[in-house]
Amino acid sequence: MRGQVIQREKQIDVWLGSPARHLITDSETSAVMGVQIERNGQLVNIQARNGVVMSMGGFENNTEYIQNFIGVPKLKVIGTLYNKGDGIRMAQEVGASLWHMKSFEGFSFNTGFTFENPEEDRGKFILSPWPDLSHGSIFVAADDGSRYVREDESGRHGHAFEGGSWKNPTVFSHPHLIFDETQYHQIEENGELPYSEFFNITVKANTIEELAEKIKANPITLKQTMQHFNRFSNDGVDLALGRSGDSMRAFDDGPYYATPLATAMLNTQGGAKRDEQARVLDAQNNPIPHLYSAGEFGGINANQYNGGGNLAECLIFGKIAGENAAAVKQDLEAKLDQSAKENVNLGGNDLASASVLSHYSTGKDQYLGVSEAGIGGRVIVRITYSDDQLKKVEVLEEHESEDVGQKAMDQLPKTMVELNTYEVDSVTGASTSSRALKSAVKDAEQKAKHATEN
Ligand SMILES: Cc1cc2nc3c(=O)[nH]c(=O)nc-3n(C[C@H](O)[C@H](O)[C@H](O)COP(=O)(O)OP(=O)(O)OC[C@H]3O[C@@H](n4cnc5c(N)ncnc54)[C@H](O)[C@@H]3O)c2cc1C
């Protein structure tokens, strides 16, 4: 997709780092006439020829919206760090109705946890099961130290089974995994940790009361929870939450451990309400003229989510919204302000690599290479190449994930130089990022060879 947009750079303008601020409406009809954006430090009014499509994602990183709409203290984002729900505010300004504001999807281990880490950082997405966190002398404690999730339940997209259906989970501010010394060793002995920081963030105490103090839980409650857990474990039946007796082992005499958790969130579903023609609706369910939406901004999933539904509606509503927004609208045509056209030079397609490569310098024997095939799009490298030797590989630009793709960016340049080739083994689990890096180095090397031939 990205490649095709770049190929059509003359037909398609792409403006990165140019956030939409407001929709512009006709004062008589309330029809949407365009968008006000911020580009190169100035506010610019963009006139729409036929329609505007809002596809601004969710509000994953807006704490106020999460508290107001979802009604939970906080969620730990394991996806995008950039969606702040701008679309919601803009849609509200033009009278759109909102829907599915409470729905969100999660993932990761147990019912959908990740580990607590600094607020501005993405949470660790742990895709594979991690049985040691749900089997043995271990449980999840809420803020006060009580149990509230069936630890051995495998969540469905972060939803927990409750009263006959799969619900968004109960969320606490500072839940913890609580475990004993035997469990500590079990986790330690079972090989490479899916989260390398696990033991670094784990707190230790000699008594369960002391542990409670350290994690700001209620010592009496936490002690009672452990005693109940031990009883259920000895009886082989979890009367509180229905965890399998086989998965429970009574706690030993300590020391005890607590690892901070957070409820993981992939993405929100809420946004402006849309109909089957992708038209954004107002509070009376009437379409707001010339305004359309697609993707998870106002996704169609209400409370329950079908796996794959988000990307499906990106494709389906993207097509419907695009076609309907592009259809000629006579009223807008009549109102087009021809005189406004030439006012500001906004530039063309920011994705086009020719202009982007010019931002980077090259010295003697240095060549730039680019690939658009990374998980996050573009990868730009600078290689130093002479006498048929790849002497240095520098990654100048990449947008790969910190936890997975980054490994390829860190490890492969060194290997390429050592083996004097871009054709090196990919990093396990980061094959797309590896491929993109190899392709960028190949591009640079071809330029180097071409330069020495001429
Ligand atoms: C780790 C992970 C795995 C997933 N796996 C699946 C899966 O397997 N199947 C599935 O169906 N779904 C999956 N999802 C969900 C799915 O990926 C998302 O719902 C989908 O990508 C959303 O696409 P979108 O285009 O609607 O929004 P986004 O991809 O979030 O794009 C919104 C864009 O709008 C931009 N934006 C925000 N505000 C402004 C503004 N003011 N002006 C201009 N631009 C703005 C943002 O920067 C962003 O680029 C997954 C999500 C995550 C995080």
From TrEMBL:
SUPFAM superfamilies named among the record's database cross-references: FAD/NAD(P)-binding domain, Succinate dehydrogenase/fumarate reductase flavoprotein, catalytic domain
Organism: Lentilactobacillus parabuchneri
Keyword Transferase: no
Record keyword Flavoprotein present: yes
Name this polypeptide is given: Urocanate reductase
EC assignment: 1.3.99.33
Gene3D superfamilies assigned to the protein according to its UniProt record, in alphabetical order: 3.90.1010.20, FAD/NAD(P)-binding domain, Succinate dehydrogenase/fumarate reductase flavoprotein, catalytic domain
Keywords attached to this entry: FAD, Flavoprotein, Oxidoreductase
GO biological process, one term: steroid metabolic process
Region feature Disordered, mapped onto this chain: 428-454
EC top class, as a word: oxidoreductase
Taxonomic path: Bacteria, Bacillati, Bacillota, Bacilli, Lactobacillales
Basic and acidic residues bias (residue ranges): 440-454
GO molecular function: FMN binding; steroid dehydrogenase activity, acting on the CH-CH group of donors
InterPro entries found in the cross-reference section: FAD-dep_OxRdtase_2_FAD-bd, FAD-oxidoreductase_2, FAD/NAD-bd_sf, FMN-bd, Succ_DH/fumarate_Rdtase_cat_sf
Residue ranges annotated for the FMN-binding domain, each copy included: 374-448
Entry cofactors: FAD; FMN
Pfam families: FAD_binding_2, FMN_bind
GO cellular component terms, semicolon-separated: membrane
Catalytic activity: dihydrourocanate + A = urocanate + AH2
